Amino acid sequence: MKNKESYTEIPLTSSTKPVISIKGLFKSFGKTNTVLKGINLTLKQGENLVMLGKSGSGKSIIIKCIVRLIESDEGEITVFNENITSANNSLLNAIRLRMGFLFQNSALYDSMSVRENLAFPLKRHNKNLTENDIETAIIQELESVGLSEAIDKMPSELSGGMRKRIGLARTLILKPEIILYDEPTTGLDTITSLEISELIVAIQKKNKTSSIIITHDMACAKLTGDRLVIIKDGIIYAEGTYEELENSKDEWVNSFFK
Amino acid sequence: MILKNNIDSLSVTLKTIFNDTGNATLFMGRFFKEIFMPPFEIKEFKRQCFLIGYKSLPLVAITGFIMGLVLTLQTRPTLAGFGAESRLPGMVALSLIREIAPVITALICAGKIASGIGAELGSMKVTEQIDAMEVSAINPYKYLVVTRILATTLMVPLLVVFADTIGILGGYVGINIHSDVTLFRYFSQVLESLDFIDIIPPAIKTFFFGFFIGAIGSYKGYTAANGTESVGKAANTAVVAASLSIFIIDMIAVQLTDLFF
What is the Cα gyration radius of chain B? Predict the structure, then answer.
């Protein structure tokens, strides 16, 4: 485990080349509220990185800066070796297409059915696909999240767990290489949370995706995380595997595992 | 001390108004850039035309009919006092086409459409649906805003024409409560009293009404802050700002009509 004093980036081998690299990321809201104070972080290919931290510590801000939903004040974010902070719209969209984002509340389009929710991004980015191809892709992704029977339902007819799964299917349909999960198990019961966590691991294994998972759910962190980082006071306070952090002598780090 | 507080409060309010106006202008300016750039969201545009135009027909029809009927009933005694009752069809038609139908229909659309767009986009904003489009490399402005502004710009004038027609029919019913005039004779008098100047300038201003109804509704919704409270606020301020803009456009349009026609 490394705490803030001893933090250095883990040396990378050729098999663990970073797909995301963040250097010195700063973000403030207003003149006094500085949320991120120099975040340094890498996400390696094929890795599931879990991000922990108290509410308001800036975890979601980091992943929103990665897809540039929020502009950072300072620092460099490199995704697939492209500097996303200075990318023009065309490059930004090309990079975004290789990333998926699962929002905390799933962000399904209310006015569209499940089928239309999945077809919407697919039709826009794959003009050559026939209606049959699109239908096949939709069914395939819904089956992969175990919800093929919900194809004609509206988002308002779905439970919280089902919405998360459909949100995940919509994310997966564009075959992303990186997936950013914003609290994927928040608001779900224990069993559904476990199912979602297992689904995240299954996706990583099947699609060879790299992921950043923000969570407060330690069971999810344990199951999904190859590596964990803890954010405190706007910096990476600690990082390591689940076991390393669980056995940490730092009282604050340890409080997450109690 | 009190004076200083009042001045501070006034300066903050003015700063907010100028900021909001500046941001709204940039937001609307983006429409003219995005509208000519592919992809063109034809399917969503047609859907919005249906929702904004077709779905507003019953409300506009009822309002238009009542406008024509009430205007006729209220004006008739005055005209009868001057012995000019025969001028009633022309006067009703002129009042409706030049001023009453465009403004009242636009105000109804501001209430129904601008608030609807403000609430819908505001809700999409706070539930991160707009962000979801953006991270999927879909331009949410083009899909959500351009289609809505374009639909209101084209549908509001059509709704006004519809309100004009129904209003004139309402006038016919109003006249026939006290007199006996045939539909042919009534419409002959209406058409005789109308000129180019009575139709074209009011028609032009309705495109501006439609544009601002769509643009203000979209702006308020699209820029809603996080939190469910802001959805209601977006809908509410959209109606207020759109209604105010209708009166301002109308005032400018009347001045320009006087100047050029």
Answer: 22
